[in-house]
Structure to design on (586 residues):
C-alpha cells in the first residue's frame, strides 16, 4: 500500500537570484509528529505566489520517492532531502502515470482529491540548482500533482495512503500534463479531461480554449496556454508598399494610406489589428520599427494608419516627412485585439489617438449591412473639438448603424463648444457618467487609450457588472510585465546594456529600442531584462509560453527546444537566441 514518507512545510521567504529578489516558499522541510491538513494548506505551510500555487485546488503538493530515485540517476546526484521538489507530501507509490484526476485518498484522518498536475516554474530550477528542471519534469513525465482537501484532518509520516474512490474516465496526471504542455494535443482526450469535475478550473479553461480554437478553425500554436483568435499573418517578415494617400486629420495627427506597389489589393485585415512599419528617418542610423493600428476599413484593399506626432523618430518621420509615392516596409496585419463576430452588443471606448483600432471596428460593423445590426455604443474622450480626430467620420458610420448610441467627453472644451451637440460630458469618463448611459452589461467591451484611461475604464466597467473576460484592451507601448515571485524594484526606462554586444540587432519595437546581441546572455529574455524592457515569463525553459511574443522578421535558435513550438509568427524569448537581426513585438 502507498505510504506517506515525509510531511514537508515551509513559509515564504525572500532570496537573491540573478540580481533580483524573489519571494518563494519552494524550500519545504520535513516536520515530525502529526500535522493538521486544512482547506488551504498544512499547518505551518504557506505559498508565496497564489497565482500559481495554493488555494483550494492546490492545497497540497505531492511528489514520489520513486521520482527522487529517478532524478538521482538521471542527474547524477545524491544530495536530495525530503521537500527537495517543493512538495508537501513525499510519498512511496502513487506514480504520475497511474494516479488519475479525481482519485480520492484517505491519509490519517484527512481525505484528499487529485485536482491537477503540478505547474512547474523557474523556482523549482532555483531549488534544484538546475534551470532546466521546469522543462525536465514535464518532458520526463514526472510533474507530481496537487490535492484538494475534502475532509480536514491530521496526517503524519508513516501513514498509509488508502484509495477510497476512482476518478472518472481514468485520466492520469501524466497524460493530463502531456496534453497541455507537449505536442500531444489529442482533442478527444482533452474533451474528456475538461468534463472531469475534480479538474481545477484553470486546466479546464485551457482545454476548453483548445477545443474552441479547433471549432473556429485555428490550428496554430498552443491556444491552451496563449489563446489566439486571429489567423496566421498574411505574410512573413516585411514587404514593400507605396504611400497612396496622406491626410492631415488635426495639427498633430496624420493618416497614411498604404497600397500594393503593383496595384493589387492588399490582403484583408481583421478589424482592430495593427501593422509594424519599418522606416529610415536617418540614413546614417538603424531602421526604426513602430506599430500602428489600422484606422480604416479592414477589407478595403489598402491599409490606413493614423499617427500622432510624438517625441520618437518614427512618429515624427511619418507625420512630418511622409509623401505620396514614398515606399515603406510593413508587416502583415497582426494582433489579438479584434472584433468578435458573435453578435453581442458592442461598446467601443477610446481616448485620444486610441480611437484608431475601434474606428476600424466601427467601419466593420457599419459595413455588415446584410446581417442583423449589432447594438453599438460609441464612447470617446478627447480634450476638445480641435483635437477630436475622426469626429465626422465616426458620425457618418454611426448614422449607418440602426439604433447606435454615441457619447463624447471633452476634458477642456473650447469656449465655442456646444454641450449636447459637440460633446455630451465635460470632464473625464467615470463610473457615474458611464452609469447614466445604461450600457448593456452583456456586451463585449473594446478599450484603447492611454494607460490611465484603460485602468480607470476597466475598474469602472467591472464595478458596473461587466465580466472581466468581456473587457478587451489594446495597449500602446509595452504591456505590463509578468515576473512571478519577483519583488518589484525601481522601474527604469528601457536602455541599452553596458557593454554593448556586436551580434545581430534585436529590435524591441514597443519600446523603440534596437540592441546588438551579446553572447554573454543565455536568451533574448535575459537581454531584455538587462535593458529593463518589460517582459513576461514564468518557467524560463520553453514550457509555459508566458513569454511568447510576435516576431515580425528574423530567425531564432532554441536551446532547449520548447516542448511545444510557439504559434507561427511568434517566438519564445525565454529559450531562444537570434540567428539574424530580429524585430519583436515587445
Amino acid at each position: 500500500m502507498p505510504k506517506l514518507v515525509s510531511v514537508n512545510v515551509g513559509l515564504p521567504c525572500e532570496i537573491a537570484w540573478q540580481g533580483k529578489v524573489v519571494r518563494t516558499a519552494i524550500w519545504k522541510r520535513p516536520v515530525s509528529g502529526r500535522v493538521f491538513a486544512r482547506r488551504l494548506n498544512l499547518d505551518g505551510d504557506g505559498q508565496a505566489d497564489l497565482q500559481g500555487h495554493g488555494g483550494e485546488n492546490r492545497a497540497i503538493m505531492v511528489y514520489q520517492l520513486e521520482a527522487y530515485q529517478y532524478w538521482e540517476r538521471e542527474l547524477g546526484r545524491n544530495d536530495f532531502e525530503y521537500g527537495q521538489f517543493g512538495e508537501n507530501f513525499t510519498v512511496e507509490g502513487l506514480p504520475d502515470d497511474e494516479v488519475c484526476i479525481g482519485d480520492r485518498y484517505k491519509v490519517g484522518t484527512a481525505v484528499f482529491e487529485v485536482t491537477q498536475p503540478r505547474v512547474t516554474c523557474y523556482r523549482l530550477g532555483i531549488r534544484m540548482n538546475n534551470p532546466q528542471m521546469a522543462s525536465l519534469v514535464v518532458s520526463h513525465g514526472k510533474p507530481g500533482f496537487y490535492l484538494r482537501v475534502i475532509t480536514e484532518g491530521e496526517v503524519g509520516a508513516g501513514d498509509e495512503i488508502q484509495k477510497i474512490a476512482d476518478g472518472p474516465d481514468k485520466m492520469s496526471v501524466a497524460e493530463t500534463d502531456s496534453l497541455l504542455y507537449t505536442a500531444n494535443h489529442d482533442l478527444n482526450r482533452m474533451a474528456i479531461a475538461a468534463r472531469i469535475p475534480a479538474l481545477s478550473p484553470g486546466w479546464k479553461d485551457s482545454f476548453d480554449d483548445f477545443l474552441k480554437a479547433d471549432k473556429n478553425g485555428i490550428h496554430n500554436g498552443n491556444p491552451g496556454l496563449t489563446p489566439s483568435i486571429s489567423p496566421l499573418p498574411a505574410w512573413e517578415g516585411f514587404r514593400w508598399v507605396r504611400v497612396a494617400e496622406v491626410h492631415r486629420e488635426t495639427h498633430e495627427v496624420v493618416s497614411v494610406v498604404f497600397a500594393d506597389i503593383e496595384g493589387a489589393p492588399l490582403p484583408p485585415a481583421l478589424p482592430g489589428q495593427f501593422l509594424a512599419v519599418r522606416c529610415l528617418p536617418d540614413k546614417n542610423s538603424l531602421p526604426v520599427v513602430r506599430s500602428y493600428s489600422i484606422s480604416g476599413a479592414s477589407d478595403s484593399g489598402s491599409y490606413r494608419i493614423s499617427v500622432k506626432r510624438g517625441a520618437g523618430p518614427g512618429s515624427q518621420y511619418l507625420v512630418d516627412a511622409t509623401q505620396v509615392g514614398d515606399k515603406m516596409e510593413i508587416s502583415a496585419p497582426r494582433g489579438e485585439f479584434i472584433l468578435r463576430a458573435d453578435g453581442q452588443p458592442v461598446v467601443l471606448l477610446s481616448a485620444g489617438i486610441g480611437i484608431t483600432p475601434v474606428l476600424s471596428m466601427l467601419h466593420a460593423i457599419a459595413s455588415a449591412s446584410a446581417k442583423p445590426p449589432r447594438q453599438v455604443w460609441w464612447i470617446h474622450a478627447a480634450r476638445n473639438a480641435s483635437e477630436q480626430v475622426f469626429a465626422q467620420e465616426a458620425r457618418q458610420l454611426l448614422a449607418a448603424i440602426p439604433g447606435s448610441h454615441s457619447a463624447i467627453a471633452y476634458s477642456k472644451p473650447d469656449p465655442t463648444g456646444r454641450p449636447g451637440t459637440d460633446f455630451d460630458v465635460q470632464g473625464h469618463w467615470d463610473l457615474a457618467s458611464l452609469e447614466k448611459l445604461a450600457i448593456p452589461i452583456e456586451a463585449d467591451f473594446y478599450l484603447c487609450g492611454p494607460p490611465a484611461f484603460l485602468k480607470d475604464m476597466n475598474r469602472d466597467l467591472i464595478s458596473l457588472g461587466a465580466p472581466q473576460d468581456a473587457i478587451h484592451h489594446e495597449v500602446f507601448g509595452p504591456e505590463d510585465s509578468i515576473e512571478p515571485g519577483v519583488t518589484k524594484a525601481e522601474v527604469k526606462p528601457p536602455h541599452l546594456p553596458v557593454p554593448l554586444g556586436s551580434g545581430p540587432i534585436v529590435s524591441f519595437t514597443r519600446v523603440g529600442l534596437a540592441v546588438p546581441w551579446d553572447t554573454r546572455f543565455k536568451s533574448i529574455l535575459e537581454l531584455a531584462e538587462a535593458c529593463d524592457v518589460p517582459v513576461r515569463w514564468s518557467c524560463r525553459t520553453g514550457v509555459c509560453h508566458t513569454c511568447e511574443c510576435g516576431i515580425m522578421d528574423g530567425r531564432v535558435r532554441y536551446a532547449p527546444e520548447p516542448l511545444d513550438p510557439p504559434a507561427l509568427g511568434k517566438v519564445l524569448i525565454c529559450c531562444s537566441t537570434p540567428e539574424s537581426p530580429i524585430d519583436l513585438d515587445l
Observations:
- The mean pLDDT is 92.
- Residues 201-215 form the longest helix (15 residues).
